């Protein structure tokens, strides 16, 4: 259901991604809300107006949240001993350390009317200290540390009846930065051999 970035009839200004996203939300938000869809997006969409529109539909979201565009939120994080979860994962070639830091109920922007969101940061590093991935996100999902067996996720999976319902359960409770990441996670969970990279 794409919404193209193109000039709209009766508008003097050039169209932009945010305007297209708002049109998309107006057209599809109600139906997607019934499906309990989680909206994913980059930092461009992580601002009060669009996030509030998502909440009003109501739709949940996971949006990239960069420090340079959210100074109030990151000022709020300063000096706090943030809850942290460290997970070691074997990729089949190297041991990676996945470090999650998070905090619930932080302001998305300055002001008394600021939307309250939950913030999470993921840093993936190698044994030599090299960081291979780093990003941060905001969501309306409450963030908590689950045990290493992903107790909450596993509790939901047996009740699902189709592959697509399983997929929805996975993406509802965990973040995947690509389809390859999602597929690798599923193969590891089923204890299947991960095929070699065919790229």
Descriptive report:
This protein has a domain at 146-199. Residues 147-160 have low confidence and may be disordered. The chain is globular and about 55 Å long. The two termini are 28 Å apart. A 6-stranded mixed β-sheet has the order 1-2-6-5-4-3, covered by helices on one side. It has helices at residues 17-34, 48-56, 71-77, 151-156, 163-173, 179-189, and strands spanning 38-41, 60-64, 84-90, 95-107, 116-125, 131-139. Helix content is 31%, strand content 24%. It contains 6 helices and 6 strands; from the N terminus they run αβαβαββββααα. A hairpin with a 5-residue loop joins strand 5 and strand 6. It is α+β, with helices and mostly antiparallel strands.
**Terminus-to-terminus distance:** 28 Å
Largest sheet: 6 strands, mixed
Radius of gyration: 19 Å
Strand order of the largest sheet: 1-2-6-5-4-3
Give the oligomeric state: single chain
Helix content: 25-40%
The tally of beta strands, per DSSP, is: 6
Principal-axes geometry comes out as globular
Instruction: Assess the beta-strand content as a share of residues.
Output: 15-25%
Count of helical stretches = 6
Please mark out the parts with pLDDT under 50 across 5 or more consecutive residues, or reply none.
147-160
Alpha-beta content class: alpha+beta
What value does the average pLDDT take? Answer: 81
Helix and strand run: HEHEHEEEEHHH
């Amino acid at each position: 259901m794409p919404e193209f970035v193109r000039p709209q009839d009766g508008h003097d200004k050039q169209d932009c991604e945010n305007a297209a996203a708002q049109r998309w939300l107006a057209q599809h938000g109600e139906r997607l809300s019934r499906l309990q869809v989680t909206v994913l997006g980059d930092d461009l969409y992580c601002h009060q107006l669009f996030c509030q529109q998502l909440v009003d539909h109501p739709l949940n979201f996971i949006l990239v949240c960069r420090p340079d565009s959210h100074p109030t939120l990151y000022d709020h994080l300063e000096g706090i001993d943030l809850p942290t979860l460290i997970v070691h994962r074997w990729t089949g070639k190297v041991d990676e350390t996945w470090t999650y830091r998070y905090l619930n109920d932080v302001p998305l922007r300055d002001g008394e009317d600021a939307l309250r969101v939950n913030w999470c940061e993921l840093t993936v590093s190698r044994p030599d200290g090299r960081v291979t991935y780093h990003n941060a996100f905001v969501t309306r999902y409450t963030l908590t540390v689950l045990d290493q067996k992903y107790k909450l996720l596993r509790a939901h999976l047996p009740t699902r009846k189709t592959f697509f319902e399983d997929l929805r359960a996975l993406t509802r409770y965990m973040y995947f930065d690509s389809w390859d990441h999602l597929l690798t996670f599923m193969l590891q969970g089923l204890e299947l051999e991960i095929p070699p990279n065919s790229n």
